[in-house]
Design a protein that fits this description.
This protein is an alpha/beta fold and 544 residues long. Helices cover 51% and strands 13% of the residues. It is built from 18 helices and 15 strands. The strands form 4 sheets. The chain has a 5-stranded parallel sheet. It binds one RNA strand of 75 nucleotides through helix 2, strand 9, strand 10, strand 15 and helix 15.
Length: 544
Amino acid sequence: MSLRHYLHDLIVPALKSCTAYDNDPIQFDIPQQITHGDFSTNIALLLAKKAKTNPRALAQSIVDALALDTAVLQKVEIAGPGFINFFFKPEFLGESILAVLQDGSFFGKSEKHKGERANVEFVSANPTGPLTVGHGRNSVFGDTVASLLEAVGYDVDREYYFNNAGRQMRVLGDSTRLRYLQLLGQTVEFPETYYQGGYISEIAQTLVDEFGSTLTEEPAEGKFKDQAEKQIFDDIKRTLKRLGIEHKNFFNENSLYEEGKIKGLLEHFKTEGLSYEKDGAVWLKLSELGNDHDRVIVKSTGEPTYRLPDIAYHVTKFERGYDLIVDIFGSDHKDAYPDVIAALKSLGYPVDKIQVLIHQFVTIIMNGEVVKMSTRKANYVTLDELVDEVGTDVTRYFFNMRSISSHMNFDLDLAKKQSDENPVFYLQYAHARICSIIRVTQEAGLQAESEDLHLLVSPEEQALIKKILLFPDIVLQSAESFETHKITGYLQELAEAFHKFYTFCRILGTEQKLAQARLSLALACKTVIRNGLSLLGVSAPDKM
RNA sequence: GCCCCCGUAGCUCAGUGGAUAGAGCAUCGGCCUCCGAAGCCGUGUGCGCAGGUUCGACUCCUGCCGGGGGCACCA
């Protein structure tokens, strides 16, 4: 049980005894000043209005009603306008480290959402070219959100939605065909609007190697498209695997047509009076569902627009029984989802189970200039190239350390040149340092013992202990708010607390009982760093 | 014109309506006969502007200014 839970359970009976408390959330802050206690709550300030009394008086009656255990809490005081500040007993905090050592790799996880199933859809790039640095943010963030959800008990399916039909893919096939013909020595014009990337020629070369010149009459949508799709998809999966990302499901949009989902949906909209025909196209009456404009769902050519399969796709997510449906999009997709959600709502689905997470774009800076990226124009930096330059750990850490609502600058030159100064090394160094301490102290015949953890009362020890005990709260908050950067921020603070502990609290040369307790604390810290980095998909090396 | 995101230290960014707004990098200055100096300690007159909401606003609301993205019978 985290310290916050302890305080919550302590204060609720007191609140009920002296206010009209009806399960409002109770906030426990960690004050910036240590003189304001380990935790602080503003509950008296919030409830004073309802109770028609002044906050300090209410705080006093709450404190008077607390069933205090003096072995756990040293002091509870009222401060300022009516804050209630809690001071834990240092010896109790020291002994709490035992739970971390016992839980090991489970520490930080919980079973709050056990029995619930979640679908996290991310990447979902169509197989028209290699993943770019821009896809990196989506990929890494999505995978980490999935890991966080698993850590709080969800059964998570990672899913990749793709479309291997339509105009984009026809152009891809024809681009490959033209490169093939060029490789055979024919002079053909290669349109500017076609895929310009060098990978197209590589695919064409494999066709030359395998089939020679026998494909000159082959249609673009035959072998050319198939081969391009296969090679590109293999490439995408290989890139993702380098980042430790593996999807359980690859959902092909085409299966929605094959299984009649599209047709059924169209008929449903028609019979419900939610669609109509105009100018030879079928429109969805989104204006009646609370959105601004009606939208075309079937073009006058008879081809559906992306909205129709997107709706059908989300219907399958509900049909597959997920309790939580997470969609991770770049900001260019933000105009699409309100239409999809409105349509799903009209179909009677509980759309509050859907969480749409939109990340802002990554701005790539190369040679001091902003690079505008386009797969078609091939002026991108691939995700593979980024991993080549800075490695998996730095890539994953970097994309996770910023809030997704912020635009992100990615200075490639800086990332390459100063990778030694990347914050991820600060954490890994702390971990490697602890591993080294364990090696050296073992050689000196010292073992970690949990008998005397109450001896850990110095400021540096207490600061580190409090950080460590906070980890389960951070994991839960990060998971439920879908914010991976809370983990990276926390780990920075944890590593800082450790490095200070290391500097001021020596183990070797200290009285044996205290030395054993300190070694236990170092071990607990190692456990949390490792667990935290593991959530992020970053390695925790024993040596660097 | 409409919609979304952003504006916090020289730079990159944190900051669930709480008490004296933080970190990393950069600058300058200290600390290794002692468990890893990839570390520690010190060093800074910063919340775009103007109103409003309230006990309290970087945080919520309105307007303005500035930057990014999106507004197709493309996906």
